[in-house]
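Protein modeling request. Please complete all fields; requests missing the sequence field cannot be processed.
Requester role: graduate student
Desired output: 3D structure, token encoding
Chains: 1
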Amino acid sequence: MHQEKILNTPAIRRMPTYLHKLLKMQSEGKVSVSSTELAEYMNIELIVVRKDISLTGISGQRRVGYDVNELIRYIKAYLGWEEKISAVLVGAGSLGTALLGYNDFEHYGFSIEWVFDSSPDKIGRDVYGRTVQDINDMESCFKGQHPEIAVICVSNTAAQKVADKLVAAGIRYIWNFANVSLQVPRGVVVQREVIAGGLAMLAVRRKFEKNMCCEQKDADNTGENIP
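Delivered output (227 residues):
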């Protein structure tokens, strides 16, 4: 796979939405899907869908489109979701609990098998079938079966210490939900999720459209005063 394809971040972020639609179609017994259907569902241009799908290596059929089951397999293979990905989650608060209850992870091969926290109030609790364990027992709990990905759902002040523990335990891929930039050694990959990022995009769109509306009203009022 070419490096430029791996770095095609917008396309990668769209892939799970394609997959969600395809899985729904699969459950409804549909056997084929066209680029036009996916473009309409995503509310994006047709050419964008075609370029995204081409990254997976699949070939569609003229006037038929793509086989739904085959496209699901190709997208999962492209994203590395065709095999199980074991994970550990640190931080069993509101956000961590919500992630544990997110059922769609099973479609992505993403399995959170360990949950840790430092709070005595949370340690020992059962959360969606997982027992919350003491973070100080992390390395002994893995027993040589280290997870591939770690999910950090702790406070900003605690995130770096948690990251240090995870790196020391041999974990190289971190999904960070704390609003802080983590300092990690070379070779460790961190994907930072800024939850407010989506809100910022929506708020800017709202502001832009409100300004446009006000400008239009001003223009209309100005026109009404013209004799």
